[in-house]
Design a protein that fits this description.
By secondary structure, the protein is α/β, with parallel strands linked by helices.
Length: 911
C-alpha cells in the first residue's frame, strides 16, 4: 500500500489506485496522513472536517468515514485512545519517504545527488492540491514545500559542484522566477554562470536581484549573495591558499589510535562540515595532537588551513566576533567591508568558505557557544577543536578524550627529548621517571628538557629529584594540579632574576611581546639574556622574528596562569605593569607623530621614557608588528584603571589605523577605553575618544551615530575650554552635512570650525578646513571661490611641510580644474597627489587620488592608462571595504571603458 500526499491525495494498492469516497472522507485521511504515526483525537478530526459549524452527528459521521476508509487501508488505520492513527512505514507514505531520502543523502555524500533526485521525483504538485485549504494544515504543508525547495537547491548546488552546469542553469532561472526573493537561489545562479564563464550574465543576475530587493522591499543583498558577486568581479579563484598551521613538534610520540580516528573523521565527505573535538585535562597534549593530525590531513584541504587560538584557558576567552574578524582579515576582507553584527560576520565567513576545502583548527576553546559561530556550513571544509572542557553538546562532532600516556608511549617521549642513549643506558630509571610524572605528556616534556639541558645528569639523578612528595607526588596526582606540579618543578630551578621576569611577563596578558619589554618590567638594562634562560627552561615560547626583525615571545597560557598566581603577592606588580605600558605608549606616540596627521585626532604629549626608539625607523612597519599587542594593551590599561594611558594609547594608534583602514581595531580600542575614562570621570579622554569614534562612523557611512558622538565631543571640549578640540568636532559635523549633500549647513559648520581652529593656532587643521570650505564652494557652483580657498589651503599645507594634507588638496584642485576645463593643470595636480600619497604608503587616499588621476587622463585623451589606473584603485576599495570610494571608481571605470570603445572609430586622436 502507498499513501500519497505530495500532490493530489491518492492511495495505491497492488498497482491500482483506490477510491477514497467523498470530500470529507478524503479530508479525514489527509489530516491523518499529515500527522502519520501520531494519534489524532476525535475532537481534532471533527475540527478538521467542520471548521466553521459542525452538525450534531459529527462524531457519528467521523466513525462512518473511518469505517469506510478501513476497507481501503486495513489495519494501517487504527484506534488510538479516543481518536485514530495512520500507522505507516516511510515507504508507505510519500512525505515520510521524501524525508528519509533527504536524510540518507546527508549520510551518503557519494550517492547524495541520486538520492535527492529520487526524493524530488515523489512530488506530483502542491500537497493535497485537490482538497480545500485548511488552516490546521498550513504549518505542515509549508514545511513540506520549504523542504522541497531546499532539496531542489541542494541538488542544483551538487550539480554545479560536479560540473553539470548547463543543465543546472535553466532550472536555477526557473526556480528564481518562482521565488524571486530567494537570495540563495540567485547566489547559486551567479556561481553557476561564473563557472560557465558567463560573467556578464552572472553580474546581470545579481543586478536584477539587487534592484528587485531595493525597489520592492527596501533591502540590500545579504552577505552570501554579495560574496558571489564579488567572486565574479575578482575573477576568483585566485591567490595562494592560506597556511596558518604552526609547525608540528619533531619529537611527537604515540597517539596512533587517536590519530586514526581524527584523520578519518576530518577526511569524511558529507553534506556538512565534519567536526572533531579533542578534549582532556591540561598538559595531556591536546594542541600537540591536533597540529599533528592537521598536518597529516593537510593534503585533503588544498584551499588552506586556518588556525586560531581561542584563549579558552585565559581569564578572557576570545570573543567569536573578534575571531571571525581575524579570519576575514586572513581572507583579505578588512575595513568597512566587515559587517558590524556578529551574525552578519558569521554569515560572510561561512559564505567565504562555501565551495572550498579548508581545515579550521580551533585551539583551546572555552565552550560550544564560542565555537558555534566559527563552524563552516557546507561540505568540503572540516573543523578540529581542542578544549579543556568536554563538549558533548557540539553537534555531530567526533569526540576524542585524551588520557595520560601508556607507559611505553611516555618512555618513548622521554627518550625523544632527553636522548635515546640515556634511556637505553638506564631503562628502569627512565620508567621510574615517567611514572613519577604520571605519564602526563607536559610533565614528561619538562623532565626531558631538564635532562637535555644538563648533560652531566644521569637518569637516576632526575628520578631521585622526583621522589620528594612535597614537590611532586601530591601535585602530579591528576587533573589540573598535574600541570601546576610540572610548572613548579621548572620555576623552582630559576635564578632570582629569571623568576621575577617569568612572573612579571605574565602581567602582559595573552598576546605575544617583543624582547625589549623584559628590561622595562625588571627595571634593569641589558637583561634580555634572561629570555634565553626562560626559553631553554621551556617556560617561554619563542615566536620567531616579526616584520621589523625583533624577536617575539609568548608565555603558554597555562604557564601564564601559574605565573600570575605567583605574581599576586608581589608588591610592585602594578608599578612594573604601568612602567611597561607607558613605555609602549611613548613608542606609539612617537611613531604616530611620524605618520600623516589624521584630522580630529588628539595625540597626547607624553613624557619621554627609556624605550628602544631605534625600532621606529619604519613607523608603519612597527605598528604592523605591534598592532594586535597594542590593541590588547588598551584592554590591559583599562582593566588596571590606567584611564589616561588607555585613551592616549588608543588615540596614538589612529594614524596607523587610518592609513591602512583598520576600522575594526580603531572602533574596538576606542570603545574599550571609553568605558574606562567614563568610569574615571576623565572628560578630556572621553571627548578625544568620541571624536575618534565619530570618524569611524563617517568612514562607515553611519552618519547618525557620527553626528551623535560629534555633538557629545563638542560639548565636552566646550566645557573644558578646548578650542582646538571643539573645532575638530564642529568640522566633523561639517563633513557629515557635506556627505549628506547639505552644503549650506556644511558651510556654516566649517566656518565655525575655522574660527575656533585659527584661534587655537592649529594650522594643520586650519589647512584641512580651508580645503573643505573650497570643496563646498565647488559643490555650490562657485568655482572661483573654490579656487581661492583650495589654493590657500595648499599653500598653508606646503608651508607646514604637511605633504599628506597638500596631496589631498591637490586632488580637490584637480577636480576643480576638470570642471573649469583646465585639463593640463588637472593632470599635473592629480599626478603630484598620487606620487605624494604613494610615497606615504596611504592606501585609502592613494586610491582616492588614483580615481582623480584617471579622470584627468580621460580628460586628456588617455583612456587606456585611465582604465588601468582606476582598476587598481577599485581593487584597493574592495579589499578595504571603502563604501564611499567604490561607486565613484566604478563610474570612472565605466567612462574609461566607453572611451576605449572610441579608439575603434576612424579619425580618433588623443590629445
Amino acid at each position: 500500500m502507498s499513501v500519497r500526499v505530495l500532490g493530489p491525495l491518492e492511495v495505491w494498492r497492488d498497482g491500482r489506485r483506490e477510491g477514497l469516497g467523498g470530500v470529507r472522507q478524503r479530508v479525514l485521511l489527509a489530516h491523518l496522513a499529515l500527522h502519520a504515526n501520531t494519534g489524532v483525537s476525535l475532537d481534532q478530526l471533527v475540527e478538521a472536517l467542520w471548521p466553521v459549524s459542525r452538525p450534531r452527528s459529527a462524531v457519528s459521521n467521523v466513525r462512518t468515514y473511518v469505517w469506510q476508509l478501513r476497507k481501503v487501508l486495513g489495519d494501517h488505520l487504527r484506534t488510538h485512545g479516543t481518536g485514530y492513527v495512520l500507522a505507516v512505514r516511510p515507504d508507505e507514505l510519500d512525505a515520510l519517504q521524501f524525508d528519509e531520502l533527504v536524510a540518507d543523502a546527508r549520510r551518503r555524500p557519494g550517492a547524495a545527488l541520486e538520492l535527492l533526485r529520487r526524493a524530488e521525483s515523489l512530488w506530483r504538485g502542491r500537497p493535497l492540491e485537490d482538497l480545500p485549504d485548511h488552516d490546521a494544515w498550513a504549518p505542515a504543508i509549508a514545511r513540506l514545500q520549504e523542504a522541497r525547495l531546499a532539496t531542489t537547491e541542494q541538488r542544483l548546488t551538487l550539480q554545479v559542484a560536479r560540473g553539470e552546469i548547463t543543465t543546472a542553469i535553466p532550472e536555477l532561472r526557473t526556480l528564481l522566477a518562482e521565488h524571486p526573493y530567494r537570495e540563495s537561489v540567485c547566489a547559486q545562479l551567479v556561481v553557476a554562470l561564473r563557472r560557465d564563464n558567463r560573467r556578464a550574465e552572472a553580474l546581470q543576475a545579481y543586478s536584477d536581484m539587487r534592484t528587485r530587493l531595493a525597489d520592492e522591499l527596501g533591502l540590500e543583498p545579504g552577505p552570501a549573495l554579495r560574496e558571489a558577486q564579488l567572486a565574479v568581479l575578482r575573477e576568483e579563484p585566485a591567490g595562494t591558499p592560506i597556511r596558518q598551521l604552526p609547525p608540528s613538534v619533531s619529537d611527537f610520540r604515540g597517539r596512533d589510535d587517536e590519530i586514526g580516528v581524527l584523520a578519518a573523521a576530518l577526511r569524511h565527505d558529507s553534506l556538512s562540515a565534519p567536526v572533531a573535538a579533542v578534549t582532556g585535562p591540561p598538559g595531556v597534549g591536546k594542541s600537540t595532537l591536533a597540529l599533528r593530525v592537521a598536518h597529516l590531513v593537510g593534503d585533503h584541504f588544498p584551499d588552506g588551513q586556518l588556525h586560531v587560538d581561542l584563549a579558552g584557558t585565559t581569564g578572557e576567552p576570545r570573543d567569536p566576533g573578534d575571531v571571525i574578524t581575524e579570519l576575514l582579515h586572513a581572507f583579505g576582507i578588512i575595513g568597512a567591508g566587515l559587517p558590524s553584527q556578529l551574525t552578519a560576520r558569521a554569515a560572510l565567513y561561512r559564505s567565504r568558505l562555501a565551495g572550498t576545502r579548508v581545515l579550521v583548527v580551533l585551539d583551546d576553546a572555552a565552550s560550544v557557544s564560542q565555537v558555534a559561530p566559527l563552524l563552516p556550513a557546507g561540505a568540503g571544509c572540516a573543523v578540529l577543536v581542542t578544549s579543556r572542557r568536554r563538549l558533548p553538546e557540539l553537534p555531530g562532532a567526533v569526540q576524542v578524550e585524551l588520557r595520560p600516556f601508556a607507559p611505553d608511549e611516555a618512555i618513548a617521549l622521554l627518550a625523544g627529548i632527553a636522548g635515546e642513549d640515556r634511556v637505553r643506558a638506564q631503562p628502569a630509571e627512565a620508567a621510574a621517571v615517567a611514572l613519577a610524572c604520571g605519564h602526563l605528556p607536559l610533565a614528561i616534556r619538562v623532565a626531558g628538557a631538564r635532562l637535555a639541558g644538563r648533560g652531566g645528569w644521569s637518569m637516576q639523578v632526575l628520578r631521585e629529584r622526583l621522589v620528594d612528595e612535597s614537590t611532586r607526588l601530591r601535585e602530579l596526582s591528576s587533573g589540573e594540579l598535574a600541570v601546576r606540579a610540572s610548572f613548579d618543578l621548572s620555576v623552582r630551578q630559576l635564578a632570582d632574576r629569571e623568576h621575577r621576569a617569568f612572573v612579571r611577563l605574565a602581567l602582559l596578558g595573552p598576546h605575544d611581546f617583543p624582547g625589549w619589554v623584559v628590561e622595562t618590567l625588571l627595571g634593569e638594562p641589558d637583561s634580555q639574556d634572561v629570555l634565553d634562560e626562560l626559553v631553554d627552561a621551556n617556560l617561554l615560547e619563542s615566536c620567531g622574528a616579526d616584520g621589523i626583525g625583533q624577536p617575539r615571545y609568548r608565555l603558554h597560557d597555562l604557564l601564564r596562569c601559574h605565573a600570575l598566581e605567583l605574581a599576586g603577592a608581589a608588591p610592585d606588580r602594578h608599578s612594573a605593569l604601568e612602567r611597561t605600558v607607558r613605555a609602549w605608549l611613548w613608542l606609539a606616540v612617537t611613531a604616530a607623530h611620524r605618520l600623516p596627521v589624521t584630522f580630529g585626532t588628539t595625540i597626547a604629549a607624553v613624557d619621554r621614557v627609556r624605550a628602544p626608539e631605534h625600532l621606529l625607523a619604519e613607523p608603519v612597519a612597527w605598528f604592523e608588528a605591534e598592532r594586535r599587542t597594542l590593541c590588547g594593551l588598551v584592554d590591559l590599561a583599562a582593566s588596571a584603571g590606567l584611564d589616561d594611558v588607555a585613551w592616549q594609547l588608543a588615540a596614538a594608534c589612529v594614524p596607523f589605523f587610518d592609513l591602512h583602514s583598520h576600522y575594526e581595531d580603531w572602533a574596538r580600542t576606542h570603545t574599550r577605553a571609553l568605558r574606562c575614562v567614563r568610569a574615571a570621570g576623565n572628560a578630556a579622554g572621553e571627548a578625544a575618544l568620541l571624536r575618534g569614534l565619530a570618524q569611524v562612523h563617517i568612514y562607515r557611512d553611519e552618519f547618525a551615530d557620527a553626528e551623535r558622538d560629534l555633538l557629545a565631543a563638542r560639548d565636552l571640549y566646550r566645557s573644558a575650554g578646548d578650542e582646538r578640540g571643539q573645532g575638530t568636532a564642529v568640522a566633523g559635523l561639517g563633513v557629515v552635512h557635506r556627505l549628506r549633500a547639505e552644503h549650506e549647513r556644511s558651510m556654516v559648520r566649517y566656518r565655525e570650525a575655522l574660527a575656533l581652529l585659527e584661534s587655537a593656532g592649529d594650522l594643520h587643521s586650519v589647512a584641512h578646513v580651508r580645503a573643505s570650505i573650497g570643496a563646498v564652494h565647488g559643490a555650490l557652483g562657485s568655482p572661483e571661490e573654490a579656487r581661492a580657498w583650495l589654493t590657500g589651503a595648499r599653500r598653508l599645507a606646503a608651508d607646514l611641510g604637511d605633504a599628506h594634507r597638500e596631496a589631498l588638496v591637490l586632488v580637490r584642485l584637480a577636480a576643480l580644474y576638470r570642471d573649469t576645463g583646465e585639463h593640463d593643470a588637472e593632470l599635473v595636480s592629480a599626478r603630484r597627489a598620487v606620487t605624494i600619497l604613494m610615497d606615504l604608503t596611504d592606501e585609502r587616499c592613494t586610491a582616492f587620488a588614483q580615481v582623480e588621476l584617471a579622470e584627468a587622463l580621460l580628460s586628456n585623451g588617455h583612456p587606456r592608462a585611465a582604465h588601468d589606473l582606476v582598476y587598481q584603485a577599485l581593487e584597493t576599495y574592495r579589499r578595504t571595504g571603502n563604501r564611499e570610494g567604490e561607486p565613484a571608481a566604478l563610474r570612472t571605470l565605466a567612462r574609461a571603458a566607453g572611451a576605449l570603445d572610441q579608439l575603434l572609430l576612424p579619425g580618433f586622436q588623443p590629445r
